[in-house]
Amino acid sequence: MKEMTPLEEIRHSAAHVLATAVLRLYPDVKLDIGPPTSSGFYYDFDSEIPFTPEVVEAIEAEMKKVIKENQRFEKIEVSRDEAIEMIKEMGQETYKLGRLDDIPEGEAISFYRNGEFSDLCAGTHVNYTKKIKAFKLLNVAGSYHRGDSANKQLQRIYGTAFASKDELKEHLHRIEEAKKRDHRTLGREMGLFHIDDMVGQGLVLWKPNGAIIRQELEGFISSELSKQGYSQVYTPHVGKLELYRTSGHFPYYQDSQYPPIIHRDCLTELAEEGCSCSELSNKLEEGEIDGYLLKPMNCPMHIRIFRSEQHSYRDLPIRLAEFGTVYRWEQSGELNGMTRVRGFTQDDAHLFIREDQLQDEIQGCLGLVKTVFSLLGMNDYRVRVSLRAPESDKYVGEAEAWDKAEDALREAVKTLGVEFEEELGEAAFYGPKIDFVVKDVIGREWQLGTVQVDYNLPERFDLTYVGADNQDHRPVMIHRAPFGSMERFCGVLIEHFAGNFPTWLAPEQVRLLPMNDDLIDHAESLLIQLKEKKVRASIDRHSGKLGAKIRKAETDKIPHMIILGKREVEEGKVSIRSRNMPDLDGTCPFEDFLLAVSKEIESKSLPAKRPSVEKSPS
RNA sequence: GCCCAUGUAGCUCAGUCGGUAGAGCGCGUCCUUGGUAAGGACGAGGUCGGCGGUUCAAAUCCGCUCGUGGGCUCCA
């Protein structure tokens, strides 16, 4: 058992105190498990009464009493039989006996006792409850016993604890601050996107400002694609079920698809025959009737493009790219702002390659992901090499091919020059992958960019190219998306910049602030010049005081302000107040400013004064 | 999908014991014409998410439903 850090000991002890308090108030509650986490602790309870906020408040008060009693934490080593006896005495057989069984034969079994409470536990703990100087219960959540949704759902109480009250206060403050950077909050405030009840859950409406950001990002990707020998294609949003039967997505992933679209005449006919729902479902699965599916992924369509003509080994790699919109029926409880949605656009591409090209092509894809991340200053990401689980049968294809693909990915990821970890069982069913994972403001991880090797779909769709030997050969496919999806990426990006985008991405790049109405005409003439240079700018025509206009522009997170007074007009200059380029602050000829901003946009440079990016509370 | 919480003006929220709805911001009009983060006055905006029930009377109590938040499960 790994030694706990002092902070983990505090949190783990707090979890025991939590259980102590719960049992004092509700003796019938059954305990499951209560570990420390990266940001606090939790304990899972099986309780007849729901843990409402009032109940949690009472529990928290009881915990304070327990701490005040300054109970000593005492380790008790026991034999397995004694352990069973103790668990039975406490009436905690329901889950604790199972937990006891998890401890391998021969390993030490211990309980920790504090006051009247003891818990099967390997430790370690603080020595006295008073060492828990600052804690707070945060929220209640459902959780399945052993993480299996087939098991009973328990109530989990989350809390956090720190070595001092100040640290706790600081932590809670950080959570509050992080909420202000939440992409859902900023997305509304900045007019970036809207999710509308009447349109549907998880379906994002990109508002004008958000659309600008997306267009800039797509434009950047497009230019990179043409540099790297990709061909862009367009494909429709629906395709025949037969297409997805061939790819294997229908019917096996039916639960995560919008239901099929079936022709009206066909439905009428079936209704007249008295066809039941399950019969209909069977007919669809068997292929006796056909219909259309909102496309859950782009690959099958790109594959059919590849297959529409003959390819020589000389033509490979063929790289087909598309900002392809896909629809997936995500569980309602999983939906989250822009980061988990039901309709989203992948910056997708599929590479059809010879096996000998695998290494180079993977590296090319990784290079693109890296380019994107460094351009945006996103350095805080995790790279995961997702491999197959050794003894699982969910994977298709030959072990030999898998080994080759996994080796190729391992080798390629080393050239990235970043830390990475291999995770078994995270691979897609058709092949291993490399994923780029980032955290949002509240510490949740989201997978963005991905590079996947696939030996399966070329087989299913019988793809071939003609080799130098004049024989047919099977190409290998790479699936890759540097952003992952435009929705999720933008959501994460909003939080990354806290809305203070680099100028090239900012929906409004420059705002002109005339001191009074007489200066609006002058502002108009500058606006025309800005627009000629394709700078996104506007004039604040309100009649408020300058201070108010500046405040508005600041809260609107405009990168550059031009303040226009009589003085500037007479001198033929402008007064600049700049967030992204503090060097520009002060007075200068308008032409100089125009040049500097054009250059800044052209170079896609990051803000010079980085927004104070606070670490997520993890 | 499951557990808990939650839904009042465009936004953030108040609304006591059930008695026909309030603030700030924003928006509009007018006044103000200014010097680097909030000038002033007036005004418009709400079937209190929806449906049903209890009641003389429901934003308020109950049921259902839809949405949202935090988790859990899931994520080809």
Features of the shown structure:
five-stranded mixed beta sheet, 37% helix, RNA-binding, disordered C terminus, 19 helices, globular
Summarize the structure in words.
- This protein has 618 residues and is of the alpha+beta class.
- An eight-stranded mixed sheet has the order 10-13-14-21-18-17-15-16, sandwiched between helices.
- A hairpin with a 7-residue loop joins β25 (573-578) and β26.
- The two termini are 23 Å apart.
- Residues 610-618 have low confidence and may be disordered.
- It binds one RNA strand of 76 nucleotides through β6, β7, α6 and α17.
- Identify the overall geometry: globular
What percentage of residues falls in helices of 4 or more residues?
25-40%
Poorly predicted runs of 5 or more residues: 610-618
Q: How many β-strands, per DSSP?
A: 26
Average residue-wise pLDDT: 91
Please outline the major beta sheet. Answer: 8 strands, mixed
Radius of gyration: 30 Å
Q: What is the topology, as strand order, of the major beta sheet?
A: 10-13-14-21-18-17-15-16
How does the helix and strand content classify structurally? alpha+beta
N→C terminal distance: 23 Å
Number of helices: 19
Report the portion of residues in β strands.
15-25%
